[in-house]
Design brief:
The protein is an alpha/beta fold. It has eleven helices and 15 strands. The strands form three sheets. Strands 3, 4, 5, 6, 7, 14 and 15 form a seven-stranded mixed beta sheet that branches. The longest helix is centred in the C-terminal third of the chain and has 17 residues. It binds NADP nicotinamide-adenine-dinucleotide phosphate (NAP). The site of NADP nicotinamide-adenine-dinucleotide phosphate has 28 residues, from helix 1, helix 3, helix 4 and helix 11.
């Protein structure tokens, strides 16, 4: 089979399409013929050498795929063969074939294309955990979604709209029109100006009940300031560090140095909460993930979850796909097709 290999840390030229042996499904696994694989920000950071959770290189990245079950391992009902599925994969998804435990797959809803199917797991599970499970977002509360035009951002917007929250989102100005059409109440430019005074003005100086912040460093300090009483801040990434080579290392160090510390007594006295989420550290909590997936699939059937695929790149154009995300060109999901 062909697979996308990150051969070592570096710029996009370290990405190669190589031939690897076909995987064989083990006990409790199915073999999926991949139709589309999600490309995530984590894959970019891993290539840059800034993603500690990644496998040792050379490696095949890929946290999610959609495709057709081609074979079933021992202990798996043969009726799975031929079914269209979506799967969470602990790496290896950016390949023509992958063996996945049955516990990590679900049937692809018929109304989704394979490309849309591959846009579901990482973005929507992350957004669900941030907004619903940990963020406890309620109707009529206000939420600030940073990088609202990204994959997780758009997923969060779908969920926040369904809850009935007032939505604020930061994004590059070129993405504002799209976001408003998707239902974002207030789009804020955060690259050409200081976004905090704008948000405070929009909220009558009260701030918001929930902020989700994947930027890291000094952004977490600002986001904390944006909280209204009983407000919660969910942190889940460090996009500000993204860059290849020494520049990335320096940016990561700067972000770490600027990371604020939150004292429990201050949180108590200000009626605020801070929490973190790393979906990649949830592999031992399969039951929770399955239950969130059930809610997301319900949302697809009811029509309030609408995965948006910006572009599908063939495997051979993997360098263009990485560059596209690094240049912030994507609105929503980028997928790879074999
Ligand atoms: N902890 C978890 O479990 C988890 C799970 C999924 C994702 N994440 C994190 O969440 C963040 C967003 O992921 P995503 O899948 O939504 O990514 P995405 O679809 O690629 O979108 C990311 C958006 O972030 C903005 N951005 C900010 N700094 C950037 C930079 N240095 N380079 C490129 N874009 C930058 C861009 O929007 P603008 O043009 O508006 O600036 C971009 O569109 C990443 O930090 C990722 O690692 C964490």
């Amino acid at each position: 089979m062909r697979a996308i290999v990150t051969t070592r840390n570096g710029d996009v030229d370290v990405l190669k399409v190589e031939t690897r042996p076909d995987p064989v499904p083990g006990k409790g696994e199915v073999l999926v013929r991949v139709k589309a694989a999600g490309l995530n920000f984590a894959d970019i950071l891993a290539r840059q050498g800034l993603y500690p959770d990644g496998p040792p290189k050379p490696c095949v990245m890929g946290y999610e795929v959609s495709g057709i079950v081609e074979a079933a391992g021992d202990g798996v009902d043969r009726s799975w063969s031929g079914q269209s599925v979506v799967a969470l994969t602990r790496f290896g998804g950016q390949a023509e074939l992958i063996a996945v435990p049955l516990t990590q797959i679900f049937e692809k809803p018929e109304q989704l294309t394979f490309e849309q199917g591959a846009a579901i797991p990482v973005n929507y599970l992350t957004a669900w955990a941030l907004l619903v499970t940990m963020g406890g977002l309620k109707k009529d509360e206000a939420v600030l979604i940073h990088n609202a035009g990204g994959g997780v951002g758009l997923a969060a917007l779908d969920i926040a709209k369904h809850i009935g929250a007032m939505t604020y989102g930061t994004a590059s100005v070129s993405k504002h029109e799209f976001l408003k059409a998707r239902g974002l109440d207030h789009a804020i430019d955060y690259r050409g100006q200081d976004w905090l005074p704008v948000l405070m003005q929009l909220t009558g100086n009260r701030g918001v009940e929930l902020v989700i912040d994947p930027l890291g460093g000094s952004s977490w300090k600002q986001s904390y300031r944006a909280l209204r009483t009983t407000g919660r801040m969910g942190v889940f990434g460090m996009s500000t560090a993204s860059a290849s080579g020494i520049r990335g290392k320096l940016r990561a160090l700067k972000a770490l140095a600027q990371t604020p510390r939150f004292h429990p007594l201050a949180l108590m006295n200000r009626n605020r909460g801070v929490f973190g989420l790393n979906l990649g550290h949830m592999w031992d909590e399969g039951e929770k993930v399955v239950s969130w997936t059930g809610e997301i699939v319900r949302g697809i059937h009811e029509g309030w979850i609408k995965p948006h695929v910006d572009r599908a790149f063939p495997f051979d154009q993997i360098t263009d796909a990485h560059r596209y995300i690094e240049a912030r060109k994507n609105i929503g999901k980028v997928v790879l097709v074999p």
